[in-house]
Every structure is written in structure tokens, then in C-alpha cells.
Amino acid sequence: MEVIKISVLGIAGVLLGYLMKNTRPEFSGYLTLGMGILILSLAVGKLDYLFASLEKIRSYIPIDSTYMAAILKMIGITYIGQFSSGICKDAGYSAIAGQIELFCKLAIMAVSMPILLALLETIQDFMT
Question: Over the stretch 11-29, which tens digit does the pLDDT of each residue have?
Fold first, then answer.
């Protein structure tokens, strides 16, 4: 049900932005930014459930907390990067949006590198 609310809120924001673009184009960017922040703040409420689920998974399977922290960092980088990139694209700055996306991809690779190295060490130990 919440997905429908967020979708309707987003569509209403798009329609308001479209109407405002014709009459007051200087405010349409602010409206887009405001709607994006509002929807993002509503999505942050889902983090409690996410953390509880990850803790439950951790109780079932002995997973190092370093790996869980890395997964959460990667999810955060993805969401923040996509949000920022979308705002830049809406404002007409697609080159900056592309640079944000590239930086986020590199940041995810950097955060995931310790996990990859641990996996390779495990495979190497298994092979010997």
C-alpha cells in the first residue's frame, strides 16, 4: 500500500513540476528536489526493517560484522548516488550526473574489495 502512496506522490510531483515549468520554471527544480527529498525520507523509514532483517540473518548464519557493514555501505552508496544523479539529470546537468554515477561505482568497488579478497583467500585455502 505504501508503494502506491509513494507512486501517487511522485506522479503528483511530476505533474506539479510540469505545470510549474510553463509558468515559473525557476521553481520547478526546487519542487523536484523537495519531492525527491520527501520520498527519500519516507524510504528511510524502511531502514529499521532492513536492520532487523540483517540482524536476524546474522543470528542464523555466523557472518562477520565487517561483511554486513560493507553490504550496508554499498546499499547506501547506491541509493545516494542514484538520488543525486537523478536530481542532476532533472536539472539538465547530465555530465555531472554521469560523474556521480562513475564515482559511486568506483566507491562500491573499493568497499567490496575486502570481501573479494577474503573470498579469494577462502578459495585458495580450499584448493591447497
Answer: 888 888 888 878 887 787 7
Q: Cell 568506483 appears where? A: 106
Taking the mean position of all CA atoms in its chain, how far away is CA 99?
16
Task: Say whether pTM exceeds 0.85.
Answer: no
Among residues 82, 80, 86, the alpha carbon closest in space to that of 29 is found at 86
Of 98, 80, 90, 99, which Cα lies nearest the Cα of 10? 90
The number of residues making up the chain comes to 128
Grid cell listed for 39: 520520498
Q: Is 92 helix (H, G, I), strand (E, B) or coil?
A: coil
Q: Are residues 64 and 119 in the same domain?
A: yes
Other C-beta atoms lying within 10 Å of the C-beta of residue 17: 19
Q: What are the cell numbers at 38? A: 520527501
What's the domain count of the chain?
A: 2
C-alpha 124/C-alpha 43 separation (Å) is 41
The whole domain housing 115 covers 46-128
